[in-house]
Design goal:
By secondary structure, this protein is mainly alpha-helical. It is globular and about 45 Å long. The two termini are about 25 Å apart. About 35% of the residues are buried. The chain has one domain.
């Protein structure tokens, strides 16, 4: 199963994406394969990081919270706020993992860059965000941008060839995914939205899990 895990995860992700109205229009596929894909990423992460027990624990917490968010967002209207809270907590868990080796904002430049990007996206989308969601969305964006920036800071502080560059990519992909999701929700429908949102989301999660050392690395 272990060598096949990336392929099985890819197939599961594809089936979840194809559940959309623009593809197969089979909602039950999303209810089965969207949570399953994240479960498979959790399985991948759980087999790694034995030499990083604290980081591993918090990455797994973040993935489990993400799974809860995935399930909540299967109901896009009623589940949006619970899903937002789950993912906010997930980013908090990732921040705990990413600050075990380096203090928060040890490199200020990524935080400035992510703040500018997040602020620009929020400024563009703000008119379309309902008043009741503005405070939780703002808090979520702060946590998301901080997670992405701290991942980039770890990469900048790491030696050449470190897995931290994969982590930095994961942080950037997560910000991209959520920016696309928010644009689709608050600014207007995007063509093939589920393809772009979910593919970048699961690539981000896989990259974050890949930051953990393989089981045979001590």
């Amino acid at each position: 199963m272990k060598p096949l895990l990336p392929l099985v995860t890819l197939v599961s992700a594809a089936l979840s994406i194809l559940a959309a109205p623009w593809a197969l229009a089979l909602p039950w596929l999303a209810f089965v394969f969207k949570p399953l894909t994240t479960v498979l990423v959790i399985v991948f992460a759980s087999g790694r990081g034995r030499a990083q027990p604290v980081q591993r624990r918090w990455v797994l917490v973040g993935l489990v919270l993400s799974l809860a968010g995935d399930v909540a967002l299967l109901w896009p209207q009623q589940g949006f706020l619970p899903g937002l809270v789950c993912f906010l907590l997930a980013h908090g868990a990732y921040l705990v993992a990413f600050t075990r080796d380096r203090p928060l904002a040890s490199r200020p430049l990524p935080f400035v860059a992510y703040a500018l990007v997040a602020g620009g996206i929020l400024w563009l989308l703000w008119p379309g965000i309902p008043a009741g969601l503005r405070a939780p969305v703002l808090m979520y964006v702060v946590f998301l941008a901080a997670m992405g920036a701290q991942a980039a800071a770890l990469w900048l502080d790491a030696p050449a060839g470190s897995r931290s560059r994969v982590l930095a990519l994961g942080g950037a992909l997560f910000v991209t995914s959520d920016a696309l999701l928010a644009t689709n929700r608050f600014a207007g429908p995007l063509p093939l939205a589920s393809l772009w949102v979910l593919s970048t989301y699961w690539l981000a999660q896989w990259c974050i899990a890949s930051w953990l050392a393989p089981a045979d690395e001590r």
